[in-house]
Amino acid sequence: MANEGVVAKGIARREEILEIALDVFARSGYRGTSLREVAEIAGLTQAGLLHHFGTRENLLVEVLRRKEQLGREEHPDVAGTPYGLSAALRNNTSTPGLVELHSVLATQAADESHPAHEYFTERYANMRARLSADLRRRASAGEFDSRIDPDRLATILVALADGLQVQWMLDGSIDMSAHFDELLGLLRADTAGPPVA
Amino acid sequence: MANEGVVAKGIARREEILEIALDVFARSGYRGTSLREVAEIAGLTQAGLLHHFGTRENLLVEVLRRKEQLGREEHPDVAGTPYGLSAALRNNTSTPGLVELHSVLATQAADESHPAHEYFTERYANMRARLSADLRRRASAGEFDSRIDPDRLATILVALADGLQVQWMLDGSIDMSAHFDELLGLLRADTAGPPVA
DNA sequence: GTCTATAAGTCGATAGAC
DNA sequence: GTCTATCGACTTATAGAC
Question: How far is the CA of B120 from the C1' of D14 (A)?
Fold first, then answer.
């Protein structure tokens, strides 16, 4: 079928546009980015852009999914572990725009009427659940301080990662992964506890 | 002078409007709130509102200063200490709108062109400096784990507080201050270290 | 101090030609 | 698949009457 080539081309173009939209939203956030701005940079008109995604909200969701997918492809080995969070922080240093995209949207999505509210609610719940399970295993193996509940520690570590990103965005000299790793070191069972003497 | 009464009335009206603007911004954030929305709720027109504050950005800055002032009046005793952060988190539970205002604006202000960029940069630097000094004193007094640098711990605790707010906004069942206090407990010198046996 | 009126611009979305 | 053209609604800000 000669049709397949045409469809593939259409999909490729859509992916191309999505990549550009990711960059633009990353720079300007949800409410600060217009369809016209994305379209112009992608080399088409606003109407042409809507042909591919239907509505603005639809485009936003697609952008978020693409971002998640990129993150998963980056560090598949440590996904769902505290070291995965640390690696993500280290990696985020090279993509400040995406950090801003995530932070801005995650806070704006607190509003239940926000189109990405459900997306973020589920994302955080999943992240905590997977991290908690991993921490529980590590505590059983004697790797981590077992005085704290894995569920609680998971929430704390995710919060620490998010909060470090906020401060890093405002002051780029802050070393996110170094701070994260330092707390992590204090919570490892083999190093926990102050010097006895 | 009969003039004084008139001026006082004008100031009172301005304060009244500011209080309303605080609520509205708290609900919808900076970019999501129009002057007309604030004006309508305050019982005047958009032009009347601008008479008091000149520009939209100016109103925003006034709202932020007012918010800071309210926070300082709340817990003057523990200001600049880790217990102050904990108290703030406990208090924030009753004002979700203000939590959203802070989080949304702090992340949006990462953009250097944002009208509140400098405000937040300075605010975080000040908070870290004051908290760090307090932690240093407490470490010297043997109250806190001294294996971690006070500067680093200050950054970590501020980040934890911010990150917990993000997760709480998305899932109100998360107990912010409980999580914060739990980590704090592990970092106190008199409780640090895992059970020996 | 507050109003009406309006300038000058943005936005998302749709219709219809090609 | 992309375009032009356009709609209706919204925005901040200003000018000038009262």
Answer: 31
What is B56-189's CATH superfamily? Tetracycline Repressor, domain 2 (1.10.357.10)
Please state the rounded mean pLDDT for residues B143-172. Answer: 96
Q: CB-CB: which of A31, A110, A183 is closest to B156? A: A183
Test A170 with B111 for CB contact under 8 angstroms: no
Chain A window 3-32: residues with CB closer than 7 Å to nucleic chain D are 6-7, 9-10, 13
Banded model confidence at residue A53, pLDDT cuts 50, 70, 90: very high
Choose from A121, A124, A174, A183 for mutation: most chain B CBs within 10 A. Answer: A183
Cα distances from A91 to residues A82, A177, A180, B107, in angstroms, run: 14, 9, 13, 19
CA distance B152 to A178: 9
Q: Which residue, A116, A100, A25, A120, is CA-closest to B117?
A: A100
Pick the closest to residue B26 from B55, B69, B66 (CA basis). B66
**Sequence-distant (≥ 6) Cβ neighbours of residue A189 within 8 angstroms:** A139, A142, A143, A144, A145, A146, B194
Q: Give residue-wise pLDDT tens across range B83-93.
A: 999 999 999 99
Beta carbons of A194 and B195 less than 8 Å apart: no
Q: Are B161 and A164 in contact (CB under 8 A)?
A: no
